[in-house]
Amino acid sequence: MDRKFPHLFTPFALGPLRLKNRIVLTAHGTYMPVNGLQTPQIVDYQRERAQGGVGLIILEATSTHPTGIGAGRYAVAHTDDCIPGYRAVIEAIHAEGVPVLVQLYHPGRDDIAGGTSDGTVAPTWSASAVRCEANQLMPRALSVSVIAEIVASYGAAARRLMQAGADGIEISAHHGHLISQFLDPRSNLRTDQYGGSFENRFRLMRDIITTVRTAIGSGKVLGVRLPSDEMSAAGLTHADALQEAAAVDALETVDFLHVTPGSCATLDGLVHVSPSMAFAAGYASPQFAALRRVIGKPMLATGRMNDPQVAETLVAGNNADLVGMTRALICDPQMPAKAEAGLTEAIRYCVACNQACIGHGRKGGFVTCIQRPETGRLAEFAMEPAATPRLVLVAGGGPAGMKAAVVAARRGHRVVLCEAGPRLGGNVRLAERLPGRQEFGGVATNLMAEMAGLGIEIRLNTRVTRDMVTQQGAEVVIVATGALPARPSFPGDDDPATIHGWDLLERPVKLGKRVLIADSTLDWVGLGLAEMLARSGHEVRLCALGFNAGDNLPGTTKGHALGVLHGLGVRVEPLMRLGGFQDGTVYFEHAINGSVVEFAGVDNLILSHGGASDTRLEEELAGIKIPVLVAGDALGARTVEEAILEGARAGMAA
Q1: Alpha-carbon distance 524 to 437, whole Å?
Q2: Domain 498-609 has CATH 3.40.5.10
C-alpha cells in the first residue's frame, strides 16, 4: 500500500492511551440526548464513527451543574442517572478499539444557556452581569459559594463518567463558555479573588482542573480545550490564547491541550465556531503553529479540517499532534479507513455548509449531514437487499436522483438514470457559481463518486417520457426532475431588465451599473448574487421579504455573509414585498405597515425567488401501472438536504 498520509496514521501515545492514528472526533452537540441522557441513537451514531477508523472520540459537552443545564437535547451529568447511558455509549466505542473521553463544561451566559424544554428562558450565570452579545441574555454574577458548587460539580461528574468507563476527561475552556468568561476581562468585572489579575481570572480554571484530576486519579487522561483566538473584536485575542495556553501547559496535572478558534458569545466569533466554506480548509493553521511554540504537551487542533491532506500537513509540520475532523466524520465516518487505504477518491468530503450538522441545533433536529442522511438514521437506512430486483428508472440527475440511484443500486436493483441536460448535479451546479460557494459543487462530485462502480447506467441529454418508461420496461420510476425558476407575476415582470437569478447564474448577461435584488427566499442565492455583483463593480441593493437577508441560513454562516456585504457597500433593506418595476423604478410594499417604498434609478431588477416543482413528468405518468416515487424539488422546492434525504428514501422504497 502506498501510504499517502504517513504522519496522520502514525500511532500516538496520549498519556496511558495508545491512539492508532491522529484523527479525533471532537466533542460536538448531537442534539440526540433525551432529558439530558444518552440514548440508543447516540450509541449507533458513535459506534459508526468508531468503526470507521478514528483514533479517539471525545463525547459531547456535558453540563456538570443545574445552573448550566440548557434544554433536554443537551447532555448532562448532574446525577447518577447519566451513568447507564454513558456506559452503553462508551462500551460500544470500546468494542471497536477506540478510546473515549468526555468533555465537561458549563455554558455560563452563552450558547445553550437559558434554554429549557418548555420554551421559557432560565436565568443565566457568569463571572459578572455582562450581557451576552450572541443570545442577548443578561446573566447573574455567580457568588463565591455557587462557584464552589460548580467546581465541586466537575469532580462529581468526572467520577460518574469514570464509573461509566471513560478513559478520561476534557475540560471545556473554549468558545466563550463559563471558564472563558472568567478569563476574559470584558466579561469578568469582579474585584474578588476571581477577578482583576490574570492569576485571579485563571483561578476558576485551575480549581476545576485540580478537582477533576483528583476525581479521576492519575491513571486517566485529562485535557483542556482552549481558544486559539476567539476571532472577535469583543473577545479573547490570539495573544490572550497564548498566555492561557502557556499557563495550562505548565500544570503537571494536564495531559494535553486542545485549541480551536471562535466563540459562541459574540456575533463575529460565532462564525468561527463551525467555519463555513467561505473559509479555506485549515485557515487557522497559523494560529496553531504559534500555539505549538508555547505548548510542550501533546496538542490537538480543530478548525475547518475536512481533508486528510490538510490534517497531514498540520501534523507533518509539527504544528499539532492530533487533528479534530468532526464534520468530516459526520459526513463520512469511513474517512479515516479510506484515507489510510489510499482511497481518497472514495471519501465523501464535507463542504462546510453547516446546514444539517450544527444548523439543526436551532431547528430542533439531531445532527446529520445533507450529503449523508444515513447519519443519525441508521435504523431507517439499514441496507437490506431487495427481495425482488427490478429495473428502476430515475428521471433527473440532480442530488435527489443521484442519491436515489445509489441506494437503489446498492439494494440490488438495475438502475438507469436519465438527465435531460448535458451534465449531472442539478441546481448544485448553479450554487457553486456564487462567491465563496465553489466548494458546494463537491456535493455533486461526491454523489458521482458514490455512483461509480455500482453499475448504474447514466444517460445524459435524455428526457424521460411515458413512452420511454413503457419501452424500457421500467418496473419503478423515481421522479427527481427538480424545480423550474419561480417567476412571480407583477407589473413589469416582462421588462427585459428583469432577470431571474437562476437565469443570471446559468447564462451571465451584461447588466447596468445599478442593480436591485428582490429576495423572497432568504437563502444563499440572494446573498450570493449581491456579493457577486458588488464584486463586479455594480451598485447593489438587496431587498428581502423577511426580517433580514439570509434568515433561512444557519447563524454560523449567515453572519459572515452579511458582514461581507456590509464591507462591499451593499444596502440591505428588510421587509420589502415586491410590487412592480417601471421606467427604472422598483416599487415595494412594506411587509408590515403596507407603506409604499420606491427605489429609482435601477438598471436591472434581479429576482431571487427560488423555484417551483417541475411536475410535468409526474402528471404525464398519472395512471401508469407501476410505482412512481417523487423526491426532492420535484416533490417540493426546498434545499439539497431534503432532496438527498428523499432520494435515499425513494431508493429504499423502490
Answers
A1: 9
A2: no
pTM of the model: 0.96
CB 458 within 8 A of CB 451: yes
Nearest to 355 by CA among 452, 302, 428: 428
Question: Does residue 2 carry a pLDDT above 90?
Answer: no
Please give the pLDDT value at position 356. Answer: 97
Could you tell me the fold of the domain covering 12-363?
Answer: TIM Barrel (3.20.20)
Using N-to-C axis directions, what is the helix angle for 442-451 and 399-410, rounded to 10°?
20
Q: What is the pLDDT of residue 3?
A: 64
Strand-pair category, 12-14 with 604-608: unpaired
| Cα–Cα distances in angstroms (integers) from residue 434 to residues 245, 447, 592, 606, in the given order | 39, 20, 31, 15
3-state SS of 525-585? HHHHHHHHHHHCCCEEEEEECCCCCCCCCCHHHHHHHHHHHHHCCCEEECCEEEEEEECCE
Using alpha carbons, select from 239, 204, 238 the residue that is nearest to residue 224: 204
Domain ranges of the chain: 12-363, 391-485+614-653, 498-609
pLDDT class of 198 with cuts at 50, 70, 90: very high
**pLDDT tens, residue by residue, 252-296:** 999 999 999 999 999 999 999 999 999 999 999 999 999 999 999
Q: Domain 391-485+614-653 classified CATH 1.10.3470.10? A: no
CB 280 within 8 A of CB 306: no
C-alpha cell of 323?
Answer: 487533528
Q: Which long-range contacts (CB under 8 A, 24 or more apart) does 346-349 make?
A: 346/449, 347/308, 348/372, 348/446, 348/449, 348/450, 349/306, 349/307, 349/442, 349/446
